[in-house]
Design brief:
This protein has helices spanning about 35-45, 65-70, 155-170, 205-210, 220-225, 235-245, 260-270, 280-285, 300-305, 320-330, 345-350, 365-370, 385-390, 425-435, 445-455; strands at about 1-10, 15-20, 25-30, 50-55, 75, 95-100, 105-110, 115-120, 130-135, 180-185, 200, 255-260, 270-275, 285, 290, 315, 335-340, 355, 360, 375-380, 395, 415-420, 440-445. It is of the alpha/beta class and about 450 residues long. It has three domains: about 1-245, Metallo-beta-lactamase, Chain A; about 255-355, 3-Layer(aba) Sandwich (Oxidized Rhodanese, domain 1), CATH 3.40.250.10; about 360-455, Oxidized Rhodanese, domain 1, CATH 3.40.250. The strands form five sheets. The chain has a six-stranded mixed sheet with strand order 6-7-8-9-10-11. A five-stranded mixed sheet has the order 1-2-3-4-5, covered by helices on one side. α3 (about 155-170) crosses α5.
Length: about 450
C-alpha cells in the first residue's frame, strides 16, 4: 500500500494519498488547493487518482477538490448529507471502496459537521485490524472536533456535541486499539482547543489519553467540548461557503507588478496593502497604512483573521515572496490579490511621504510606561487558553480573531500597546489598528514570554 500524509504546518492541516500499487488506483483525502505534490507522488508511484474524498465541508481552509478533479478527472465525494452546489458522488455509512487489495470503508461520523465521515483503511479486504482511520475533524490527537462551527436554527452546539459523542463511542472507538488515527488537523488549528502537535496516534492511545474521551457520560462530554473553545476566526464562514461552491481554480502565477502610482491609486480606492516581511523588517520602514503579516508565521490563518475577503489585496513587501504570498492566501480563499509593488526599496529610499516606521517596545519599556502618568490601553491578543496560563495585569483580552470587531472597545486617541506570546501576532494586531486609524500603537518585542523572562509581575 502507498500511504502518504501531507502536513501543512502553517495551517496545521493534513491530507492523504492512499494507493494500491498492484492496480495503480488511488484516492486523495482532504487535499489542499495547490495540488502538485499529490500529482507528482502519484506519478512517481504509477498511481491514477480516481477519487477525491472530503471528510467534511472544511471551514479553516479552501480545499483543492475542484483543482484535483480538474487535473485528473476524478469525481469528488462527500458524506451523503452534504449540502454542496456542484456534482459529487455521495458516500454512505458502511460503503466499501476497493482500490484492489487496499480497501476503504466509510463511517458516518457527524458532530463536528452533519456530513462528516471517517475513512477506515485496510491493506487487505479481509484484515481484522485496519491499517488506520482518517478521522477528519471528528477525532484529533488529544481532542475532538469543536461542535460550534456548523450550528443552525434547529441544531445547537449542544445538539452537535451529542451527535459527536455517538459518532465517537459507537463508531470510532469500536475500532481495534491498534488502529492508527490520522486526523485532518494538528496543534495550532482553531478546529479544537487542545490539539496535540503529534500528527497521528492510535485508537488505544486516544481512548486512554484524550480528555474528551474520558467523560463519564454524554452530559459531561457535551459540557467539556463546548466550553472554552477559541474564538471562531471570521474567515471560517466565508471559506465554508466557498468550499460548497463551484468557483475559479487556483491561479499560481505571480501577481502583476505595479509601480508606485498604481499602488497608491489602488490603496485610495480601498485595496488592502499587505506586507508579508518579518516584523522587524516591517517595523524599520514600510508603506504607510500597510498591514504586516509575516510569511514565516501562520500567514494565511492570521490574514483570514484580520483581512476582508471582499476587498482587493496589493502586496507591498518583498517582490520575491509575492507568488508564495498569493498561494498561501488562496489556501483560505483570499483570491483577490491584484498586484505587487515592483520596488519597495526605491519607495523606502525615495518616497518618505509614503513611508512610516513602527514603534516596538521592550518588556522593560512597557513596564516603565505603565508606571508613568497618562492613559495606556494594553491589549492581549492571545487565545483564552494562553491567557488562562497568565497575563499582564490590566490588559484587555481581545483575541486576534475578534480584533476587527472590537474597535469600539478601544479609544482611537489613547496610546495602544499590543502583545501576544512571542511578538508575531502582536505586530499583526498593531498594524491593523494603525491601518484602521488608531493614532499611536506599539507592540511588545518578545511578547508575554519576554515579560516573564524579565521577571515582571503577572496575574
Amino acid at each position: 500500500m502507498i500511504f502518504t500524509q501531507y502536513y501543512l504546518e502553517c495551517l496545521s492541516q493534513a491530507s492523504y494519498l492512499i494507493g494500491d500499487p498492484t492496480t495503480g488506483r488511488a484516492v486523495v483525502v482532504d487535499p489542499r488547493r495547490d495540488i502538485d505534490e499529490y500529482l507528482d507522488d502519484a506519478a512517481e508511484h504509477d498511481l491514477r487518482i480516481e477519487r477525491v474524498i472530503e471528510t467534511h465541508i472544511h471551514a479553516d481552509f479552501l480545499s483543492g477538490h475542484l483543482e484535483l478533479s480538474a487535473a485528473t478527472g476524478a469525481p469528488i465525494s462527500y458524506g451523503e448529507v452534504a449540502d454542496i452546489e456542484f456534482p459529487f458522488e455521495p458516500l454512505q455509512e458502511g460503503q466499501r471502496l476497493s482500490l484492489g487489495e487496499v480497501t476503504l470503508e466509510i463511517l458516518a461520523t457527524p458532530g463536528h459537521t452533519p456530513e462528516s465521515i471517517s475513512v477506515v483503511v485496510y491493506e487487505h479486504p479481509d484484515d481484522k485490524v485496519p491499517y488506520g482511520v482518517l478521522t477528519g475533524d471528528a477525532l484529533f490527537v488529544g481532542d475532538v472536533g469543536r461542535p460550534d462551527l456548523a450550528t443552525t436554527e434547529t441544531s445547537s452546539a449542544d445538539d452537535l456535541a451529542e451527535t459527536l459523542h455517538h459518532s465517537l463511542q459507537d463508531k470510532l472507538l469500536k475500532l481495534p486499539d491498534a488502529t492508527r488515527v490520522f486526523p485532518a488537523h494538528g496543534g495550532g488549528s482553531s478546529c479544537g482547543k487542545q490539539l496535540s502537535s503529534e500528527t497521528s496516534s492510535t485508537i488505544g492511545e486516544q481512548r486512554k489519553s484524550n480528555y474528551a474521551l474520558q467523560a463519564r457520560d454524554v452530559k459531561q462530554f457535551v459540557a467539556e467540548v463546548t466550553e472554552d473553545q477559541p474564538a471562531q476566526p471570521p474567515y471560517f464562514e466565508f471559506t465554508s461557503q466557498r468550499n460548497r461552491q463551484q468557483r475559479d481554480l487556483l491561479d499560481e502565477s505571480p501577481p502583476p507588478s505595479l509601480d508606485v502610482d498604481e499602488v497608491y491609486r489602488l490603496a485610495e480606492s480601498g485595496a488592502i496593502l499587505l506586507d508579508s516581511r518579518e516584523p522587524d523588517d516591517y517595523a524599520a520602514g514600510h508603506w504607510r497604512g500597510a498591514v504586516n503579516i509575516g510569511l514565516d508565521g501562520r500567514f494565511a490563518e492570521w490574514a483570514g483573521n484580520v483581512l476582508s475577503p471582499e476587498r482587493d489585496i496589493v502586496l507591498v513587501g518583498d517582490p520575491a515572496s509575492a507568488r508564495e504570498s498569493r498561494i498561501r492566501l488562496s489556501r483560505v480563499g483570499f483570491d483577490r490579490v491584484i498586484g505587487q509593488l515592483r520596488d519597495l526599496a526605491a519607495v523606502l529610499a525615495q518616497r518618505p511621504d509614503l513611508v512610516e516606521v513602527t514603534s516596538r517596545l521592550t518588556a522593560e519599556r512597557l513596564a516603565e510606561l505603565r508606571d508613568a502618568p497618562g492613559d495606556l490601553q494594553l491589549v492581549d491578543v492571545r487565545g483564552p487558553g494562553e491567557v488562562a496560563e497568565g497575563s499582564i495585569a490590566g490588559a484587555l483580552e481581545i483575541p486576534l480573531p475578534t480584533l476587527t470587531k472590537s474597535f469600539s472597545s478601544l479609544d482611537r486617541a489613547t496610546p495602544v500597546v499590543t502583545y501576544c506570546a512571542s511578538g508575531a501576532r502582536s505586530m499583526v494586531a498593531a498594524s491593523v489598528l494603525r491601518a484602521s486609524g488608531f493614532e499611536e500603537v506599539s507592540d511588545v518585542l518578545g511578547g508575554y514570554g519576554a515579560w516573564q523572562d524579565a521577571g515582571l509581575p503577572t496575574t
